[in-house]
Amino acid sequence: MLKYALRRILGMIPMLLLISIVAFFLALAMPGDSFSGEIDPNNTDPEYIEEMREKLGYNDPIHEQYFRWVSNFVQGDFGKSTKYQIPVKDLILQRLPNTVMLGVMAMFFTYIFAFSMGIYAGRHPHTKMDHFIGGFNYFLLAIPSYIAGVFAIYFFSFQLGWVPFSGSVDIAVESGTLDYWLSRFYHALMPSLILGALGTATYTQFLRNDIIDNSQKDYVRTARAKGTADSKIYNSHILRNSIIPIVTFLGFDIVQIVNGALITEAIFTYPGLGQLFLTSVNAQDYPTLMTLFVMFSFLVLLGNLIADLLYGIVDPRIRVD
Predict the structure, then answer these.
(1) 3-state SS class at 87
(2) Percentage helix, strand, coil, to 5, in the chain?
(3) pLDDT tens for residues 209-251?
(4) Which helix (H) or strand (E) holds 149?
(5) CA–CA separation, 240 vs 250, rounded Å?
(6) Quick count: other Cβ atoms within 10 Å of Cβ 11?
(7) How far apart, in whole angstroms, are the C-alpha atoms of residue 208 and residue 88?
């Protein structure tokens, strides 16, 4: 298992290198350039602009610009945001806790909903409740996240006033206090519920179908013939084998959280990395955009690695040599 993990980690290096090349040249292919955020708005003299371009290295050959960016990136220097005029590292560290909190809460809601509905539907197949859960899951698959977000804001924020519709914390509370953390949880509750609920459908149906399939296996019939209680059969045998497909989706969980956060954070004006990414695209903030692109890609690769390792841990029949 350790050798396999090391091989996968080493294999991620050329992938990340390729991703960095794609990120760099996609930024160059976008209309305009990031220099507009570097110049003094009170000084539009062409000689001054050309002097600044030369100073910042924008006139260097493309390959020199790329290698300079990569070498700085590896050393932890992600450049300076042309929109916010602060180092990209500091900007990401400001937004990262919000996205992590949103992602963890969304995954919690996803697994709670998926396991509760999937286990019930699997243990009671072809009942009215099973059909209702199936129809509800198809509805969640069909509705776009931005439609669900707008509806949630209108109904729960504007009509009922239960949750805030924007921000990540109340500006009136003092940082580090209990009220501060409660306010952060309160602001992240609705975005995470939307993000988590929309991700439950696939997991619920996979878990339901696997429980039904495993219920008909020979080892379950043998356990029942020995007089083993149904609760023990489901909890110790059927459920453990049925959650294997769910574990393999862990890498896709990270992808889904990142992709979902792009839209959800924008709709709820939640100041996380997803909203920062969209803002960077609109503002042509290339240093921030390229850093987030590489960061999101790394999270996808890391999630797939974790999923492969957990697959061997959950299923004793599978061991990676």
Answers:
(1) strand
(2) 75, 0, 25
(3) 888 888 888 777 887 788 877 777 777 777 777 777 676 676 6
(4) helix 145-152
(5) 16
(6) 11
(7) 44
Paired residues of 80 in beta bridges:
87
The torsion defined by the Cα of 288, 290, 291 and 293, in degrees rounded to 10, comes to: 120
Residue 187 has pLDDT above 70, yes or no: yes
pLDDT at 129: 92
At 69 the three-state DSSP class reads: helix
Quick one: CA torsion of 297, 298, 301, 303, rounded to 10 degrees?
-110
pTM above 0.90, yes or no: no
Distance CA 193, CA 139 (A): 16
Distance CA 149, CA 156 (A): 10
Q: So what CATH class is 88-314?
A: mainly alpha
Cα distance between the two ends of the chain: 6
How many CA atoms, within 13 angstroms, populate the side-chain half-sphere of residue 192?
24
Name which of 121, 130, 112 is nearest 200 in CA terms: 112
Contact 114, 203 (CB under 8 A): yes
Helix count (H) and strand count (E) of the chain? Answer: 15, 0
**98-119 CB burial, b ≥16 within 10 A, e <16:** bbebbbebbbebbbebbbebbb
- Token pair of 127 as six digits: 């009942």
Question: Hey, is 38 helix, strand or coil?
Answer: coil
| Per-residue model confidence as pLDDT tens digits over 275-288 | 888 888 887 788 88
Structure tokens that stand for 221 in this block = 């019939």
Name beta bridge partners: 87. Answer: 80
